[in-house]
Amino acid sequence: MDNADKLLIDTLFENGKTPLKELAAKVGLSAPSTSERLKRLEERGVIKGYTLNVASDQIGYPLRAIVRVSPMPGQLQRVTKLIQQTAEITECDKVTGEDCFVCKIHLKSIEQLDLILDSISQYAATNSSIIKSSPVKRRLPPL
Amino acid sequence: MDNADKLLIDTLFENGKTPLKELAAKVGLSAPSTSERLKRLEERGVIKGYTLNVASDQIGYPLRAIVRVSPMPGQLQRVTKLIQQTAEITECDKVTGEDCFVCKIHLKSIEQLDLILDSISQYAATNSSIIKSSPVKRRLPPL
DNA sequence: TCATTTCGCCTAATTATGTTCGGTATATTG
DNA sequence: CAATATACCGAACATAATTAGGCGAAATGA
């Protein structure tokens, strides 16, 4: 991971469709060499894939929430499965400490939150917070 | 947003580099029409951009944590700025409820967490959880 | 030390991919 | 019901990415 590799990752994180030519110019290499670099980054698993940023409010989800979930004794497996099967839960991390899971949920309405929490509450205690804004948008840590 | 548009978004979310030809085949349209669809999705702001999935452990960050941050009275502005300026904080949402912020942090080591928390703790109470696994990887809600 | 291999790079040619350009059918509107 | 707008198509064109062949510097090993 030299400077060129870092620049490639940084640039592609900003715009995953940056043309090879432009990438090559930025790192000061030829197109084929740059392509080789990328291939190696992919093979090494540094670059796991290319994806989209979608505006969730444009696809019918004006609300987002963060829900902390603490399964009741003996319900860990069930709750894990339930979380994975709830399509509106778009991200979930299992963490140390009091709460077991921290989930991000996309919602069509507040009512939908109630609905989803109800389905969980038989097996876990939950703590919900509506997202009001995002002071830090997804970004890379320093390379 | 008809079925074709949804398929395009779903497919590109999985692989942001899916060739137009393949997208066209999938939605049953010609390449130019598919390209038009994409352009409109971008113009309407549904597709906000293309980006990368990077393996954070491959770029020197084997640990991730979720930190909830509750600024002390009168320190909201300062804390907001501090969070934004802390490069290891790769995501932060401002939420309703007890805690004001929920942050995701990428870490080189546990010591680094201590360091970062120290810099915040003069202005806010914090509650940290180390991420042990991610039962739900980032995905789209139902389209 | 000097031959040998490996590696990363280059340019040029080739192939793949995406866009533009008429032009048509089907809705939409005055 | 004519006029316009929309979404689509195939063919031609333009752009972008990959492959092929070869060069030079650093690492490897006799």
From TrEMBL, chains A, B:
Pfam families hit by this protein: AsnC_trans_reg, HTH_24
Highest taxon in the source lineage: Bacteria
Keywords (A to Z) from UniProt: DNA-binding, Transcription, Transcription regulation
Record PROSITE patterns: HTH_ASNC_1 (PS00519), HTH_ASNC_2 (PS50956)
Positions of the HTH asnC-type domain: 1-62
Protein name: Lrp/AsnC family transcriptional regulator
Organism: Maritalea mediterranea
